[in-house]
């Protein structure tokens, strides 16, 4: 029970109520002592009035009056004259004097605590003002044993009452906490457990209903988290399904392309100059497609294999990409330009770099052709001290805001209708594998520029 929130709250409530009662106990005991002494002064004054009514009373009556007042001596000052009204033998000498006429709260508390913890029976003198202004002052002497016993009895009664009040208060607070806090928290926990059992089920997402502001904020935060997680899981499920589909397609496509490779051998032996010029490019394209299918089948997952780095002439890769895209243009008025130094060698995986540049050039071509307006695509490269940079520039309409926001996110960063956004996501991942980057350098109405950065250092050092 004490490990639960409500159980600990119950214990803490009892403790704090008891502490509050203890803070009340100290001044209460001090007030009780003051009332006790004032009552003895009042009794003593009444006893002394008997003597004023009759100057001569016998000794037995005098002792009975003192016993009734529970004092040893009574002195009364009237008309500036102090007069011993009643007296009896004292067991001890007077050890302390207390004047109640001008005692402050702290003095009363200090005297009460000192008396409560002093177990010896002592004789004290108490001075006070007579009731009904029957004189200037009244002075009595009395023992402290009866006073201390009365204070202890009074204190125990207060403590017992405090304990009862604490338990009752804690019980009602316990019920209140269970109703207003514990039950709603348990409800949130049940929602979390239910959601964990089937996070793809949108019906298990919590619906905020708490009346307490803090709990409702927690429920709303949990609802937002669950909705985001459910959407993410659905996207990952689609990616997994896509991966399975791609693996199946790649298997059959590899077999088809392998057959196509056999036919290209015969094409290379053709006497037609145009066929002989285009045949090597066709062979290279089919070979790349076969390697891509084999890579997909080998890994069977969305992650790309580690790049096999080597120094390759960049102009050859760019030329292959541009030649392939020129064939796709047909009669459309779209020009290509290559600004790549002939001897520029870059350190990269040639197949992966080809895929990255091909993705960017193909996207640019599709964007320009979709507008129906003539345009130009340029591939430029430069070498710096620590890296190679490749820029793909087009004169297309630029990327829409949504495409810019989810630029490298699969299925969300598509820039054209029907586009999946996979091309840029794959290209960015391939460049990260090289230790490099693929960034959007500029996009506006005048066109778009993507920049590839390939570091010269080892990938592990980046």
TrEMBL record:
Enzymatic class: transferase
Coiled coil: 215-242
Cited Gene3D superfamilies: 1.10.287.130, Histidine kinase-like ATPase, C-terminal domain (3.30.565.10)
Transmembrane segments: 9-30, 158-181
Assigned keywords, A-Z: ATP-binding, Coiled coil, Kinase, Membrane, Nucleotide-binding, Phosphoprotein, Transferase, Transmembrane, Transmembrane helix, Two-component regulatory system
Residues annotated as domain Histidine kinase: 248-458
Gene Ontology MF annotations: ATP binding; phosphorelay sensor kinase activity
EC number: 2.7.13.3
UniProt-listed SMART domains: HATPase_c, HisKA
InterPro entries documented for this protein: HATPase_C_sf (IPR036890), HATPase_dom (IPR003594), His_kinase_dom (IPR005467), HisK_dim/P_dom (IPR003661), HisK_dim/P_sf (IPR036097), Sig_transdc_His_kin-like_C (IPR004358)
Catalytic activity, as annotated: ATP + protein L-histidine = ADP + protein N-phospho-L-histidine
Name of the protein: histidine kinase
Organism (species): Shimia thalassica
The encoding gene: zraS_2
